[in-house]
Amino acid sequence: MRKIVRIEDVGQTFDTKNGRLAALCGITLDIHEGECIGLVGPAGCGKSTLLNLIAGLARPSTGVILCNGRPVAGPAPERTLVFQNHALLPWLTCFDNVYLAVERVFGGREGKAGLKQRTHDALARVGLAHAETRFPHEIPAGMKQRVGLARALSMQPRILLLDDPFAALDTPVRVDLQDELLKILAATGTTVVMATHDVDEAVLLSDRVAMLTRGPGATLGGILEPGRGRPHDRLARTREAAFSEARAKLSAFLENQPLRHAA
Ligand SMILES: Nc1ncnc2c1ncn2[C@@H]1O[C@H](COP(=O)(O)OP(=O)(O)OP(=O)(O)O)[C@@H](O)[C@H]1O
């Protein structure tokens, strides 16, 4: 598989009111085209920080992140981040929330009809063709998160960065969206990096799971491979031995992270 992102010896330090905080230390990880990689670790270990660095929203204090061989120098539509709380503009309909992103990325080279078609297609892909004219306050949380996903997908990112995207949702809605994501990944081959607190979610959706140790100074504690070449089907996945094995290993890893006190 072709390497799309290389995270090379990356560290991130923050200046806080209590002094310098080394959040991440010496993270080295290759991400391959078309894979879904889960980021899992104890609370506050630096999962969002790593996603922000890949998105180009911040620069690493040490090391380098390469995307297609070039250092990540800032945000770009090829690397789109989806947040836990959808971040939709409340005064725009679902359609217009997605259209805005489509126009930003493709507006320079496509006419209105093409942009509208892209928007319809993105909303249809997440099962929201019927909700285009609704406003965010008129739809439930799961649908809002679908719109956020549609908006991200509409930009045709090479890499979709998901920051615990389903954490705020009830279990049935969450399960639905996980299924949807598996289908979308199978259909589009988009590369995904997904931070999650949920062991089952990580093992179900990821081809590989990168386990981060407890921060401060979180490092890469190991990589699990629960999903390489597995079916894009939730139930089929849960029945596999690789699922139970990876789940047990990931749970054990998290339980064995010693509590540390910030310096
Ligand atoms: N801008 C910032 N300034 C100062 N400290 C920060 C900043 N961003 C993150 N941190 C600190 O860096 C560490 C890693 O934070 P981060 O949010 O990346 O972890 P996380 O694993 O995503 O957390 P969670 O499990 O709560 O989602 C935490 O100690 C956090 O307080």
From TrEMBL:
Entry's family note: Belongs to the ABC transporter superfamily.
Subcellular localization(s) per the UniProt record: Cell membrane
SMART domains the record matches: AAA
Keywords linked to the UniProt accession: ATP-binding, Cell membrane, Membrane, Nucleotide-binding, Transport
Membrane topology: Peripheral membrane protein
GO molecular function: ATP binding
Name this polypeptide is given: ABC transporter ATP-binding protein
Keyword Nucleotide-binding: yes
